[in-house]
Amino acid sequence: MDGQNFENEQNTTVEAEQSNHYQDNTATWVPPVYAEPAQQNQSNALAIVSLVMGILSIVFACCYGIGIVFGIAGIICAVIGKKNGTSGIRTAGLICSIIGTILSVLMILYVILVFAAVFTNPEMKDLIQSYENM
Amino acid sequence: MNRNKTIEDECYYIGLGFAGLGLIGCFIYFKFIVPILPDSSCFFWKVFGLYCPGCGGTRAVDALVHGHILQSLWYHPLVIYTVVVFGGFMLTNTMRKFHILHIKGWKFHAWQLYGALVIVLCNWILKNILLLCYHITL
User: Does any domain span residue A10?
Assistant: First the structure.
């Protein structure tokens, strides 16, 4: 009887060990992490937005300096995108946005100077009027 | 179900955002800004006598709306380029999202953006060369 019990005990401990091993294996198994592609996509998306904004800032730079809005937005997107990695598109976007912003600022300053000159000097107003009628 | 977004999905949503902002911008421009501006011609052109990188854009849109594709291409090639590349991308990806005709959406390529940049710069340089050297205006 005792021997039988001992055998039974042994069998149950072996089974328990096997089941423990099985459980241990599943407990230590780490699922693969897919965060990297999503982060890469976010980085790419910001880089793309940055370049699009940069192109728009250059195109609209001379339209009374409206390009400054696109330029600043492009710079912000490029700077935020830098945290998630660098890419050629992001660099191009940053460069284009900076160029567009500088052009826009120059244009705004020039518009202010011209309008100030027109409003303070009546001769300038006549000069511009004659220039427009040409 | 958590699905990984592809770069095409990201670009699609960005495109929708840009299209929405563009429509709002056009509405504000034509409704509120155009009546205020004394003359809608380019300030850069008026002051310096040269074309700016965006010169001809409005005329190109106007020509395209009236169906004059070649004229639109001459005024500013970026307009046609944007309609073909951006419009095609958005259309095919909308059809892909709604499973219409089992169409696969256009893929995003970096050259599509670099192409736009090259077109803007080349158009600007070329138009000013034509103006200064051959007195060819828009």
Answer: yes
